[in-house]
Amino acid sequence: MEPSQTVEDKSQPSVATVTRRIQRLSLHLIPLPPLQCSPQLDMLTCAKANKQEVDVASLSSYMRGKHREIQEKIFYFFNSRPDLQTPTEISMKEHRELCLRQLLGLVREGKIKPFRYVVEDPAKYFAISEAVGSIDISLGIKFGVQYSLWGGSVLNLGTKKHRDKYFDGIDNLDYLGCFAMTELHHGSNVQGLQTVATFDPITDEFIIDTPNDGAIKWWIGNAAVHGKFATVFARLVLPTHDSKGVSDMGVHAFIVPIRDLKTHQPLPGIEINDCGHKIGLNGVDNGALRFRSVRIPRDNLLNRFGDVTRDGKYTSSLPTINKRFAATLGELVGGRVGLAHSSVGILKIAVTIAVRYSLLRQQFGPPKQPEVSILDYQSQQHKLMPMLASTYAFHFATQYLVEKYSEMKKTHDEQLVGDVHALSAGLKSYVTSFTAKSLSTCREACGGHGYAAVNRFGTLRNDHDIFQTFEGDNTVLLQQVAADLLKQYKDKFQGGALSVTWNYLRESMNTYLSQPNPVTARWESEDHLRDPKFQLDAFRYRTSRLLQSVAARLQKHTKTLGSFGAWNRCLNHLLTLAESHIESVILAKFIEAVQKYFLNSATKFIPFLSTCHIYKFEFLNCFECNF
To answer: Catalytic center at which residues (predicted)?
Structure first.
C-alpha cells in the first residue's frame, strides 16, 4: 500500500495499477509492431549457430517463376484488408459470408479476373489459385468451384452459345454456380449416376428428375446458400418408338438455374438442403439438391460431345457411350490437376511454419552452455528435412503436370490426354496423402505451441483432409494409374508405342529386368550412391519389377477368379506399383529441376542438391523390403 493511502482506499486500485492494467490490455488489442521484441522474449545465443547462405531472391525467382507478380498482388490485397482476413474463432454462418466477401473483394476490388486463364493460361490460373488458397483454404475451394468446376464445365463441355451467354456472369461473380456431379449413392462411380434428364419433344425441353433418395446431389459446393446455377450431371434419356419406349444415352451435363436471380429463392421443383457443419472447409456452403420435374431449355445441354436435335434425334462425333463419357471426364481433369497443385501449396505453408519454429525454439543443451535450437537434434531433422526435400520435389513434379495439362488444352492430342489423365490421378493421390500425414507431423514437431489454433496446423489439417477424397478417391485414382501402366505393358509386347511419361518403361523392361537389383548389386562408393543416374535407375528398376510381377499374377488368377476377382486379389500389389511409378516420375522431375538450377546458378547449387539427395534416400531405404 502506498504510504499516502488510507485504510478506506485499500479496495481502490492506485492510478499506477490502473495505468499498468490498461497498458497490458492494450497489448491484446494493439499488438507490438513487427521486429519489436519484448525483453522477456529475446533470443538466447544458440550453442550452434552455423548459418547456410542461400540466395533467396534467385531461388524464389526460380521456384515461383513468371507468375510471382500476380501472387504478390493477391497477398498485398489481403494484407491491406484486415476485414477480409479469417479470424481464428468464427461460426460456420459467418465463415461462409466472409468467404463470399473475400471472393467478391478479390475479383471486384482487387481486379483479379482469373476465369479466362482457365483455358488460355492454366499455369497462371493455378498460380492464382495457390495464392488464394494460402489466405484461407475455404476461399481456395470456393474459388475453384466457381471458376474451375462450374465455369470450367461451361467452357470445356459447352459450345460457343454457352460461352457467349454465361462467360461474363461467371467471370464477375454475378452467376455464382455449382458443380452437381456427386450423388448420395454414387461418388467415384460417375457412370452409375441416377439423376435423369428426359427430353420432351413437344416443348423442346429437358425434364430433370431425382428418381430416388440415393440420386440426391450431395456435397455440392456453393449450393446451400450462394449458388444460382448448377452444372448437373444426369442420364440423357430420349423417347423412342420401339418396345423400350426410351433410350439411355449415358451421362451428360446440363445447366440448371437453381435460384431466382432477383429474389435468390429456390426455383419451382428445386429442393435445396444444407449439408451442415463439416470437419473442415466450413467457409464453403455444401448443400444437397433434389429435382422434381424441373424443365430447362434444350439449349442448356452442354453439347460439345453430344447433342439433341429439335425432333429428338441424338448426334455425336463420338460413336459410343464410353467414348463420350471418357471425353467428358477428360475435359474435367483440370480440377484434379488443381488439387495436386494446391496440396503442395498447403504443404509449403506447414513445412515453413514447422522449420522456422524449430530454428527459433531452443531446448536443453550441453552442461553450463546455452540451449540449442531443436532443429539441431537429429530426431527433429529426421521429421522435417525429408519433408522439406519432398516439398521441393512435389513442387517441380506438379509444375511439370501443369505444363503437360496446358499443352493438352492447346493441342487436344489424344495420347497426351491419356497421359495427363493418368499422371494427374497419380500425383493427386500421392501428394495429397503425403501432405495429410505431414500436417500431423508438423504439428507434433512444434510441440504444445503447435496445438494453438493461431498457428494454423489444426485448420490446415482439417481443411486439407478431404483433398484425399474429392476429385477422385485416392485409392481409386492409384488403380487408374496401375491400369494404365498395365495397358502400356501389354501394348509394348504387342508392338504398340509407349506414351511419353511411361517411356522409361521401354528401356526398363528391355534392360533392367535382365539385371540384378541395382541397390544390392552395385552398393559401392559414396559418389556412386549419390549419382542421380544410379538413384533413378533404382527407382525405375523397382517399378519394372513390380509391373512384371503383378502382370504375371493377374494372368494367373484371372483363370480361376475372373478379371474382377483377380484384380481384387492383387489390389495391394497394384497400389504399390502405382506409387512406385509416381515416385519415379517425381524423382526424375526433381533431378531435372535441380540440374537446371545448377546450370543457371552453380554457386548456389549445393544446398538445393542436398534436399534432392534427402528425398531420394528416404525412398531408397525401403527398397530391400520390396524384393
So the answer is: 471 (proton acceptor)
Which residue blocks in 105-225 are alpha helix, DSSP H? 117-120, 122-135, 137-144, 152-157, 160-171
> Out of 183, 471, 579, 583, which one is annotated catalytic?
471
The larger pLDDT score, comparing residue 317 to residue 32, is at 317
Q: How far apart are the first and last CA of the chain?
A: 79
Q: How many CA atoms lie within 13 A of 417 on its CB side?
A: 14
Q: What is the DSSP string of 221-258?
A: TTTTTT-SEEEEEEEEEEE-SSSS-EEEEEEEEEEEE-
Concerning whether 94 is annotated as a catalytic residue, the answer is no
Residue 454: HSE in the Cβ half-sphere, 13 Å Cα cutoff: 2
Q: How far is CA 217 from the centre of its chain?
A: 22
Cell 524384393 -> residue: 627
Instruction: Record the pTM.
Output: 0.84
Residue with cell string 426455383: 267
Helix (H, G, I), strand (E, B) or coil at 272: strand
- Give the chain's mean pLDDT: 85
* Ramachandran bin of 276, using left for φ above 0, alpha for ψ from -120 to 50, beta for the remaining angles: left
Grid cell, residue 576, equals: 504399390
Does the annotation list 345 as a binding residue?
no
pLDDT at position 521 is 56
Tens digit of each residue's pLDDT (9 = 90 or more) over 464-522: 999 999 888 999 999 999 999 998 888 766 555 555 445 555 565 555 555 555 555 55
Pick from 618, 570, 158: nearest CA to 388: 618
Binding site annotation covers 221?
A: yes
Q: How many C-alpha atoms does 238 have within 13 Å on its Cβ side?
A: 19
Alpha-carbon distance of 235 to 252, in angstroms, equals 6
**Dist CA 35 CA 395 (whole Å):** 31
Helix locations, 302-413, DSSP H? 321-331, 334-360, 378-411
Of residues 52 and 239, more confidence is placed in: 239
Integer Cα distance of 127 and 68 in angstroms: 8
Q: Write the CA distances from 333 to 136, 302, 396, 469, 553, integer angstroms.
A: 23, 17, 19, 15, 31
Which residue has cell 519432398? Answer: 390
pLDDT in tens, 144-183: 999 999 999 999 999 999 999 999 999 999 999 999 999 9
Residue with cell 525467382: 61
CA 566 to chain centre: 32
pLDDT tens digits, 320-377: 888 888 888 888 899 999 999 999 999 999 999 999 999 998 888 888 888 899 999 9
Dig out the grid coordinates for 309 from the structure.
436435335
The whole-angstrom distance between residue 51's C-alpha and the CA centroid of its chain comes to: 34
